[in-house]
Specification:
Number of strands: 2
Distance between the termini: 31 Å
CATH architecture: Irregular
Largest sheet: 2 strands, antiparallel
Strand order of the largest sheet: 1-2
Radius of gyration: 14 Å
CATH topology: 30s Ribosomal Protein S18
Order of helices and strands: EEHHHH
Shape: globular
Length: about 80
């Protein structure tokens, strides 16, 4: 397994230790529209099976993680996401 297989994961292995990059993507890009109609953005924070990614893997702050989760659930009710 090369580094390519870990490209999706924000936790990168460095020797024995894990290095975590801690910054919120949505705080650094405030122009991003977070809403149930923006399915391209919401799909980034879903696993292959449709579960919402936890904060450690999504690299979001608490307020944005809650907002993403709320909008994913609303988009599921509207039938935009599975």
């Amino acid at each position: 397994m090369g580094l390519e297989s870990w490209a999706w994961c924000p936790l990168l292995t460095i020797g024995k230790f894990l290095k975590k990059y801690s910054y919120c993507y949505l705080c650094s890009n405030p122009r991003k529209d977070i809403g149930p109609m923006n399915t391209e953005l919401l799909k980034k924070y879903l696993e292959i099976w449709g579960r919402i990614l936890p904060r450690k893997l999504s690299q979001l702050c608490l307020s944005h993680q809650k907002e993403i989760a709320k909008n994913i659930k609303l988009a599921r009710e509207l039938g935009l996401l599975k």
